[in-house]
Amino acid sequence: MPKKNIFIVYAHPEPRSLNGTLKDYAVNHLQDAGHTVEVSDLYAMNWRAEADSRDFPEHDPEKRLFYHSASKEAFLTDTQAPEIKAEQEKLKWMDALIIQCPMWWFSMPAILKGWVDRVYARRFAYGVGYHGYERYGAGNLKGKRALLSMTIGPEEAHYSERGVHGNIEDLLFPITHGILYYPGMDVLPPHLLYRAAALSPDGFAPVAETYRTRLEGLFTDEPISFRPQGGGEYDEQFRLKPGIADGKSGFAIHRRD
Amino acid sequence: MPKKNIFIVYAHPEPRSLNGTLKDYAVNHLQDAGHTVEVSDLYAMNWRAEADSRDFPEHDPEKRLFYHSASKEAFLTDTQAPEIKAEQEKLKWMDALIIQCPMWWFSMPAILKGWVDRVYARRFAYGVGYHGYERYGAGNLKGKRALLSMTIGPEEAHYSERGVHGNIEDLLFPITHGILYYPGMDVLPPHLLYRAAALSPDGFAPVAETYRTRLEGLFTDEPISFRPQGGGEYDEQFRLKPGIADGKSGFAIHRRD
């Protein structure tokens, strides 16, 4: 298998956590397979989650901050905060992104959301292309792969098709579709580990075995069949055209399966 | 109308923003109506978004941090970081919560997610009751009201039933259901302002008029008809029982309408 560049973004405050162990496992396994691995350990880096004018050192504090225009301006003039640029460079360099984090309140931890808010600059991750609408199957990260590896405290039934929290595929859609597919990545089905809090230290072997399979399929597994925006299935107002997924509702209409 | 206590959590880095204007408008309007208003301006407070061991000053750094158990321990022994306790006191004091923020990447800004991650302590917002499952229609914030007031950059069609980003009700479900309904609040339909970036300064009058109606209905408008977990509609594995919303799918099955 050809050697690849893999970027792991990892968000957990405790290095001895299950998330830390999964991150270490992935690093070791991927390096053993000959790949080059880069890790952004957001807590260890003291990543600042709060997006604000500090992201644009040249921004005049007397002037009202429009975050999206300041973001575009700073990206185009190479005046972004250096830690933002460094993360963008890793995203450009990589062939695949792995996100390792726990699910907190049906979403990602704030520190990781703040990585997205800040690193996903205008013209880099959105507002790309002549009309600014190269996304969902197009964009600057097109052709790269993405895998969300997430631990979840409770058991799977609570997140099943009729589970009280809402079904897990839909809960993760704002991440898989809205954050990973948006700038063009091919998104694999998430790697989910339920009942994470109840896992005993010697329960890691079967977990590692499952994860290993996913890591080995990083470049060969079938991505989620999200519909590309430019594939002729959406109208000029970016609505799914009549005749496609008729009579269906919810996020599932944006998948081809 | 009886005078009430209203808590506004506001998250925007720019005081001169539309979000700042909406927050100020709500404060003034609600105070003029005789209510007492408390505001947490997260950026002005330098709210730390990153949940970690600093939230539990008594936590022994030599010991592995299990965030949820440390959270419970600190909540029960009154040893949480003071800024966390202060926010919990406001949640106990209030009759209604208003969240004012922009939509960033199909969710809330990281600073606000970090408010949820840290303030929603175990035994306060989750793990409540004898079995730890008093939630969704029950919990410590039962009987209080919640209104999410959010600005959205693009236009409404893109978030419509068949819009490319996914429909807005489902995109907000992790917040309305997962964060606001979970600890027991009655959640009103969100107040959404599309094309926020394109709004000119003199375009605020009609916006204010619409928002005023929502503020005046804060205690009288009909909440979203989410199904309470303890209402007999879920089984012991917290799955919707057969016969309820049969043949339907997606988050909509968790509403009674």
Description:
The structure is a homodimer of 257-residue chains. By secondary structure, the first copy, chain A, is of the alpha/beta class. Chain A folds into two domains: 5-225, Rossmann fold, CATH 3.40.50; 227-257, no CATH class. Helices cover 29% and strands 12% of the residues of chain A. Chain A has helices at 18-32, 67-76, 82-93, 110-119, 168-181, 204-216, and strands at residues 5-10, 36-41, 96-102, 145-151, 186-187, 191-193. In chain A, strands 1, 2, 3, 4, 5 and 6 form a six-stranded parallel sheet that branches. In chain A, strand 1, helix 1 (18-32) and strand 2 (36-41) form a beta-alpha-beta unit. In chain A, helix 1 packs across helix 6 (204-216). The longest helix of chain A has 15 residues, at 18-32. The first copy, chain A, is globular.
